[in-house]
């Protein structure tokens, strides 16, 4: 075969494969809509440097890249939780969404879609906007609802995107957060969006304190009756393994500590017909911490209640962060070996 003929034949094969891929593409769906557990990681970076707003992309904050998506898809992840800042996507309360940030979100969703992964859009603001809590005169509940109805209008593909209303809304009283979340879910559904929704517990969303009373009430009390007319809302909880359960310590409590706390919240979910998602959890890489990590993952075996998890965290800017599972120099983080058992 001549060189020209060889090149022509090669191009024909490429074109044929392109045609086949194009025909197959509509059949490939991300996992948000499938009846499977969502298991993956937080790809952090877009929420970084909240003190510099809006900040400069690639200097103050960063979005995930293709290489990161490739790696986590290759080890079995089917979902990523994408933390980002409310102030960046909506620079003015109740105003238009920022076109550049909207493109960043859309490109991230597109990268996930190519790998058949679900994206949880996580507003990572702790219940505030520019430091002011939702429900104050500075930040009305309606302003928060406005954000989500705008986002829901732009990310309506239920197979690609799930909505994480607010990360760890500790700035709001527990009852106020439950009421705000319920009104927001109602508004999203009234608009016609059918995406999966995740509603965080109040405070730090901790499994360990789910039934603990603060100012006369608890997450267990106020979220027992939470309802979605489409029954597509899960309750998001978080749990870390250091002695303060904060995600900041370098040591971990005994693995056996997690049995009772996870049994209790699983029982609560069954009693109140709720579904749970562990949106954040993570440990350093010592053997005691790896045992704790394994213990937490092992507690979520009841698929009727536990619908999945996203480890905290991965992302290209973590450096020496002890909980990071971003690979370094082609090597898996020690925690990744535990995660692989459960993907």
From TrEMBL:
MF-aspect GO terms: hydrolase activity, hydrolyzing O-glycosyl compounds
Protein keywords: Glycosidase, Hydrolase, Signal
Domain Glycoside hydrolase family as annotated: residue spans: 44-314
Ranges in coiled-coil conformation: none
Pfam families registered for this protein in UniProt: Cellulase (PF00150)
Domain of life: Bacteria
Leader peptide range in chain numbering: 1-30
Any one of the GO BP annotations: glucan catabolic process
Annotated InterPro entries: GH, Glyco_hydro_5, Glyco_hydro_5_CS
PANTHER family associated with the record: ENDO-BETA-1,4-GLUCANASE A (PTHR34142), GLYCOSIDE HYDROLASE FAMILY 5 DOMAIN-CONTAINING PROTEIN (PTHR34142:SF1)
Family: Belongs to the glycosyl hydrolase 5 (cellulase A) family.
Protein name: Cellulase
């Amino acid at each position: 075969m001549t060189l020209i003929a060889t090149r022509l034949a090669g191009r024909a094969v490429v074109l044929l494969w392109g045609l086949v891929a194009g025909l197959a593409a509509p059949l490939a769906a991300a996992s948000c809509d499938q009846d499977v557990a969502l298991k993956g990681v937080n790809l952090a970076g877009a929420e970084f440097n909240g003190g510099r707003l809006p900040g400069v992309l690639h200097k103050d904050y960063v979005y995930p890249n293709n290489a990161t998506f490739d790696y986590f898809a290759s080890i079995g992840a089917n979902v990523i939780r994408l933390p980002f800042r409310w102030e960046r996507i909506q620079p003015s309360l109740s105003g238009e969404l920022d076109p550049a940030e909207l493109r960043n979100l859309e490109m991230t969703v597109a990268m996930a879609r190519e790998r058949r992964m679900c994206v949880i859009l996580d507003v990572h603001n702790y219940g505030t906007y520019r430091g002011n809590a939702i429900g104050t005169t500075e930040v009305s509940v309606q302003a928060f609802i406005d954000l989500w109805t705008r986002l829901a209008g732009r990310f309506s593909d239920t197979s690609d995107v799930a909505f994480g209303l607010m990360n760890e809304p500790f700035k709001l009283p527990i009852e106020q957060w439950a009421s705000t979340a319920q009104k927001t879910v109602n508004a999203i559904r009234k608009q016609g969006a059918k995406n999966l929704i995740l509603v965080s517990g109040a405070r730090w969303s901790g499994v360990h304190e789910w039934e603990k009373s603060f100012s006369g009430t608890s997450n267990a009390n106020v979220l027992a009756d939470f309802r979605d007319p489409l029954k597509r809302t899960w309750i998001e909880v978080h749990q870390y393994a250091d002695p303060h359960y904060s995600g900041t310590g370098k040591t971990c409590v005994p693995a056996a500590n997690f049995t009772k706390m996870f049994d209790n919240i699983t029982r609560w979910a069954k009693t109140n017909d709720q579904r749970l998602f562990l949106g954040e959890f993570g440990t350093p890489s010592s053997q005691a911490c790896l045992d704790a990590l394994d213990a937490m993952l092992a507690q979520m075996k009841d698929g009727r209640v536990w619908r999945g998890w996203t480890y905290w965290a991965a992302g290209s800017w973590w450096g020496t962060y002890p909980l990071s599972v971003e690979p370094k120099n082609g090597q898996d983080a020690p925690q990744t070996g535990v995660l692989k058992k459960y993907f």
